[in-house]
Amino acid sequence: MVDVPVKKYRVRRAKKWLKRTLIPFAVRARNVSIKWSKSDRNDWPPSSQASVPGLARYEYSWLSQNGEDGIIRHLFDEIGYESRWFVEFGFGAVQCNSLRLMKHEAFSGLLMDGAHENVNFFNYTASKVGFENVRAVQAFITLENLEQLIRDSGVPRDIDFLSLDVDGNDYWFWEALECISPRVVCIEYNAGLGPDLSLTVPYDPEFERYSKHPSGFFHGASLAALESLGKRKGYYLIGCDSTGTNAFFLRDDVRVNDVPALTPREAFRPHANWLGRGISEAEQLEIMRSMPYEEV
Hints:
The protein is α/β, with parallel strands linked by helices and 296 residues long. The chain contains twelve helices and nine strands.
């Protein structure tokens, strides 16, 4: 059995607590505003990436984490905008998949997250820069409150973009989500589960990734599970980012030239961070098989 590497997440939490205690909120919020004000990329897509296959050719991160800004920009360049609305749950005030859409494409939208301070940072900074039609809501999302939170925020049914990254119940939330119909979906998958197994964490309304297992390996759903769910909901898989973090789906009525539906094996990218830590794909899968995932 492979030893399961454990991240020092308690140390990170202690450091965050220390910052909250010692550095005034306004000072830390100003750092968020500085990040938001950095220049976006103009040389895009770069000629150096012309031979890169799939969505990875368009990747770059401005205010996203794993190249999502470039992929999302490319997709909407191809399909255009309709409602200019988004919903994103599980977000960071500094790194967020929808920030570019707010700043450059005049999107309205709703962000949801369980971290009170993260939400306060976002709303404080948004008010300073004039995001009048975007709000962040602090809530620990469950199947029971998910759709009501969205309805209460005045989100229309037909939206352009949904981003889902909660490090746990992602599969169950997407399955239950019926009050909105996004044209583009970006959802985190667990690449450690490989391209073929259809697995997810069992639903738990109090799921917290590092409380469930300090390694962080027990979270989310496999790409195959999400691809199958997407098909049932009327979506097709078009690819994953090169870090093995996010999968991208289009609604069945939305088509992009030269972007076909892919199988999970065709779209799959391994987890770059775990590989970089010296944990092979086979070792990742062995670790995952020791944990109580549920077949779907």
